[in-house]
Amino acid sequence: MIEIERVSFKYSGSNEYALKDLSLSISRPSITAIVGRNGAGKSTLLRLLNGLIPHFYEGEFRGRVLVDGVDTREVDISDLSRKVGLVFQNPEHMFFSETVWDEVIFGPKALGRNDFEELGEKALRLTGLTDMKDYPPWSLSGGEMKRLSIACILSMETDYIALDEPTVGQDAVSRRELIEILRNLRNMGKGIIVVSHDLEWISDLRPDRIIVIRDGYVFADGGCDLLADVTILARAGLIPPMSAIIGRAIGVRGFGIDDILKEVLG
Amino acid sequence: MIDPTRIFKAFQISKERTPYSSLHPMTKFLIFLSFLVIPLLRDDIISQLSIFLLQVPIMICSKTGKRIGDSLKGSSLFLIMIIVLNYIFIRDLLYSIAMGLRLTNLLVASAILMAATNPMEIGDILSMIRVPYYITFSFVIALRFVPVLARDVENIVAAQRSRGMKIATGGLLKRARSLIPLLIPMIIISIRRSQQLSEALEVRAFGSGKRSFYYSYRWSYSDIIFILYTIICWIVIVRGYPFP
């Protein structure tokens, strides 16, 4: 379980706190979506999970974060990366190897795992990249790069996987594929944490839990019902997904377009 | 622990108003140029130390001390390399240390200018001395992208550390090799960005004719004080006062 206890954080050089007295806990298996406007503190919250804050990003840190009972302040980022994998918004920041295969096995090798080949194969299979094993990472399309960045973290066999804005620059097919990958991972017992302001995609993903962040604190915490709550979303500066608005207008209690189609078409 | 990515810290532009930042761009350029030339005139350790001390008041006036300190920490590996290489070939320890200090002085002079000056001002200086606009523009863009590059480096380091990579540990060779996962994404991202930038400039009619400018700068008493100080620095180092 990841427990965030009364955490406040201010980046060095900034006058405002990015996170203010924020508390929450995340268990697994689950898919947790963290939503909020730009600058609400979503990405900062992700950086807490694998110790990038306070070890890498300098600033004023209060409170504590426990990952399976371990205080993130007391262990190094590389040790925490055995537990929590972080997929960055821009996959290009991660790639440096000649082939997709080399890229995928980098993480498990860095962690000293002897079964890195098995882990790499499994990660490529789960993300549908097995056929692209020998491709240079930079030759992949945007969607494939995103899947490769997930494969790089999957191969490290972490219990939790956090994704920062995974749908940015992704087409409809890639967004669908991403949903399938994340659902499979949850079924494998992983804790998935997704940060996004793309509520349309979140409603299709149907996460187990939605946390709305506003100005650095937890504004609302609940199930998918939150996506249809116009009042709460509007107060957090968010617009409900179109599928929820249409669903409500035609009397269908659904959260994603799939639910509406299922109910309308039978 | 030495982290080479810290070198960029000093080159991130600060928006804070300081006695230095409000100077006429030409004054800043003269100070910068002076402290680029002065360290090259002397090769003894006392002169290099004096030059460093003479730059301290400017550092204070520009409030760049902490960031320059961070940057020097980051570049300590290169400074040590300069000292060691000089010692291997010249076999004079004091001279080798002086060469390391010379590089430090050059780094400090550049960092003060970069950290406390808007790149647009630097472009204006070059325009004032009749440098062709396309050269000025390239220079300004290069400077403007330093903080962007610094942010990229920060993201790349964070991404690689999240994948279990350790930076700046072990021996010299291991440390150099640990930089590969940082350098390759940085180079590729930079090349892609320059391609996008050139396309963006093309569609915005760059180079289609004579440009117009609307900024004007005024000289103030602070400029006179800083120029006088720079002249004093020249005299102290060239004439060798107080160290003959």
Structural features, described:
- The complex is a heterodimer of chains A (266) and B (244).
- Chain A is α/β, with parallel strands linked by helices.
- Chain A has 2 domains: 2-83 and 161-173 and 187-265, 3-Layer(aba) Sandwich (Rossmann fold); 91-157, no CATH class.
- Helix content of chain A is 36%, strand content 23%.
- Chain A has 11 helices and 10 strands.
- Chain A has helices at residues 42-49, 52-55, 77-80, 100-110, 116-126, 142-154, 172-187, 199-205, 230-235, 242-249, 257-265, and strands at residues 2-11, 19-26, 30-35, 59-67, 70-71, 84-87, 160-164, 191-196, 209-214, 217-222.
- In chain A, the strands form 2 sheets. A 6-stranded mixed beta sheet of chain A has the order 6-7-8-3-9-10, sandwiched between helices.
- In chain A, strand 7 (160-164), helix 7 and strand 8 form a beta-alpha-beta unit.
- Chain A is globular and about 55 Å long.
- The mean pLDDT of chain A is 88.
- By secondary structure, chain B is an all-alpha fold.
- Chain B has one domain (4-207, 220-235).
- Chain B has 10 helices and no strands.
- Chain B has helices at residues 25-41, 45-62, 65-74, 76-90, 93-115, 119-128, 133-162, 172-178, 180-203, 221-239.
- In chain B, helix 2 packs parallel to helix 5.
- Chain B starts with 24 loop residues before the first helix and ends in a 5-residue tail after the last helix.
- The chains are: A alpha/beta (266), B mainly alpha (244).
- The A-B interface holds A 47, 50, 52, 56-57, 77-78, 81-82, 85-86, 88, 90, 92-96, 106-107, 110-111, 138, 152-153, 156 and B 152, 155-166, 180-185, 188-189, 192.
Topology:
The complex is a heterodimer of chains A (266) and B (244).
Chain A: E1 2-11, E2 19-26, E3 30-35, H1 42-49, H2 52-55, E4 59-67, E5 70-71, H3 77-80, E6 84-87, H4 100-110, H5 116-126, H6 142-154, E7 160-164, H7 172-187, E8 191-196, H8 199-205, E9 209-214, E10 217-222, H9 230-235, H10 242-249, H11 257-265
Parallel strand pairs in A: 3-8, 3-9, 6-7, 7-8
Antiparallel strand pairs in A: 1-2, 1-4, 4-5, 9-10
Helix pairs in contact in A: 4-5, 4-6, 5-6
Chain B: H1 25-41, H2 45-62, H3 65-74, H4 76-90, H5 93-115, H6 119-128, H7 133-162, H8 172-178, H9 180-203, H10 221-239
